[in-house]
Structures are given as C-alpha cells and as structure tokens.
Amino acid sequence: MPTTVRSLDKQEIDQAFALARLAVPDLAQAAWRDFARGVLSSRGAEQGGILVAEQDGSALTGLLVYWLRTDLRRGRLMIVEALVPVGLSRRRAGEVTRALLDSAERTARRLGCAALRVTIEERRLVALDGERADVLGDLGFTPEMLTLYELRL
C-alpha cells in the first residue's frame, strides 16, 4: 500500500481535524479550521503549509505543519511544527513519517531553504515499550539544540 504526500486542500480541513487532534488533544474544531485556513493562505514572511499523507488515495494517514523562517545562523529554514504519523504498527507509522519528511525536504529544497528543522515533543520520542525512540535520528536528522524550559504566556 503506497503512501503519497501532498498539500492539504482547503476542502479537506475538516477531514484532517482528527489528525490535528493527535498533535493537540484539546484542539477545538473551530480553532483548527481558523489555523488551517490561515496557514493555507499564508504569504510572505509568515508563509507556511500543511502536508498530508494518504494511503491508496483514500484515508489520511499523516499530517505535517511547517513554517518558513529566517534564522540568524542558517538563513532560510523550514520549521516543522507538527508531525503526526498514523499507522497500525510502529513500522507503518515509521513509513508515514519518512514519507512526510521526505516530502518536506523536497519542498524545503524547492523553496531555497538551507535546513529543515523539526520540533518534536518529548512524549513523542518514547516508544510503546518505554524505550527512547530516535525516529528522527534514524532518518538522518542530527540534534541541534534542546529546549529545557518553556514559559507559557
């Protein structure tokens, strides 16, 4: 069953809500609609995008939200804010992750980015068996920095 990745279409925003809720469990549907519409219509300095993975042209099996930014050290970056792979097994979820990140990399290169940066929550790094899973390391990413604290405003 091949996985394809493409940009989310505005008519699919509601269909992708369940995936967005996996990234943000308390997300309200109206907030998701507003957010997704804003991302899909973004231009200029606040340009972003939403990629979705689908299996056999039907069910959405993954979601990736990105923003383009300029970084003092790297220049133009693609920053992945949300990465949600869905699969019935770890292997399948890994395939969806790879497909989403491969597509993000191609998009970043096409848009002239110097790097692809992925932000991932600590809870997403722990596998079902309790062992730390270095999913991104397995895909060729190297750790750049660690955020130890966040002040929520």
What descriptive keywords fit this protein?
153 residues; alpha+beta; Aminopeptidase; 5-stranded mixed beta sheet; 4 helices; disordered C terminus
List the helices and strands and how they pair.
Layout: E1 3-7, H1 17-23, H2 29-40, E2 48-55, E3 59-71, E4 75-85, H3 90-110, E5 115-118, H4 135-138
Parallel strand pairs: 4-5
Antiparallel strand pairs: 1-2, 2-3, 3-4
CATH architecture tag: 3-Layer(aba) Sandwich
Number of strands: 5
Report the principal-axis shape. Answer: globular
Please list the strands of the largest sheet in the order they lie side by side. Answer: 1-2-3-4-5
Derived structural class: alpha+beta
Number of alpha- plus pi-helical segments: 4
Helix content: 25-40%
Mean pLDDT: 81
Biggest sheet features: 5 strands, mixed
Q: Return the CATH topology.
A: Aminopeptidase
Using only C-alpha atoms, the radius of gyration works out to: 15 Å
Q: N- to C-terminal separation?
A: 44 Å
* CATH homology superfamily: Gcn5-related N-acetyltransferase (GNAT)
Compute the number of structural domains.
1
Residue share in β-strands: 25-35%
Q: What is the succession of H and E elements?
A: EHHEEEHEH
- Low-pLDDT ranges: 126-132, 148-153
Commentary on this structure:
With 153 residues, the chain is α+β, with helices and mostly antiparallel strands. The protein has a single domain (3-121), classed as Gcn5-related N-acetyltransferase (GNAT) (Aminopeptidase), CATH 3.40.630.30. The protein contains four helices and five strands. It has a five-stranded mixed sheet, with helices on both faces.
